[in-house]
Amino acid sequence: MKLSLFFLASATTLGLCCDPVSAKTVSISIMSGPFRFEPQSVDANPGDTITWTNTTNTQHTISPDQDGAFPEKDPIESKETYSITVPANVGPLPYHCNFHPMNATINVVKP
């Protein structure tokens, strides 16, 4: 019994026992009629990837409300994609388009 617990504790410590939380990709579309980010709010863990796809025939920006919260994309061209890695700070990351009245939020949550 003691030997089994030792091996279980060792395997857990070494990360051999349990599945680690793996990073995921969250997709956001830039839509027209009216212009918007879809979905307008997403939850993501630190280390996840956020990928925007501009499905419109118009340029947009992906601009964080707080300078430096994540790298700005200015502009994102028609049919272009853009990705970031979600930063480690937990909390809301609101962003907007500098060209159009569009805004949305990435909610960074603990895994």
List the keywords.
single chain, 111 residues, mainly beta, Immunoglobulin-like, 5-stranded mixed β-sheet, 4-stranded mixed β-sheet, 1 helix, 9 strands, 11% helix, disordered N terminus
Could you walk me through the main structural features you see in this protein, from its secondary elements to its overall organization?
The protein is globular and about 35 Å long. Residues 1-19 have low confidence and may be disordered. The protein is mainly beta. It is 11% helix and 41% strand. A hairpin with a 6-residue loop joins strand 8 and strand 9 (103-108). It has one domain (23-108): Immunoglobulin-like. Residues 25-108 form the Blue (type 1) copper domain. Residues 55-74 are annotated as: Disordered. It comes from Bradyrhizobium diazoefficiens (strain JCM 10833 / BCRC 13528 / IAM 13628 / NBRC 14792 / USDA 110). Pfam families: Copper-bind (PF00127).
Q: What's the short version?
A:
With 111 residues, the chain is mostly beta strands. It is 11% helix and 41% strand. It has a single domain, classed as Cupredoxins -  blue copper proteins (Immunoglobulin-like, Sandwich).
